[in-house]
Amino acid sequence: MKKKTLYRDPKNAKLGGVCAGIAEYFSVEIWLVRLIVVSAFLFSAGFFVILAYIAAYFILNKMPEKREWRQSIYQAHNIKKKSWQSGHSAEQILENVSRELGDMDKEIQQMEAYVTSFAFKMSREFSKDS
Fold it and tell me: Whose CA is closest to 21, among 54, 66, 56, 73?
C-alpha cells in the first residue's frame, strides 16, 4: 500500500494551501476543512489555531507539480459517494469523460487527415532520400 504524504496545495489555496492540502489528504471537500478551521478559531482557542496554521504552513512542503497533475486528473474522475467527500456526481463524471473522448476523437481525425494528405506523403518521400 502506498503511503500518503501531506502537502500544502497552493493551487487551491486561499491563504497558504494548508486547508486544501489537508482536504486532499483526507479526501474531503475543501470547504469542510475551512469551515472546521474557522469554527475552531471562532469558538475555541483562536490563538492556537492561528499558531498551528502558521506552523503547518512552514512545516509542510509545497505539493510537487507531478502530484498536482495526478490530483487534477483524479478529481475530474472521482465519484462523490457522500456529500462531504471530494469529487463529482456520476452525471458530471459522465460529461467529463464524454468531453474528453470528443476531444480525443477530434485530435485523431486531425492526425488521420494529415497522415492521408499529400503533404505528408511528399514529406515522407523527401525524408527517405536524406
Answer: 56
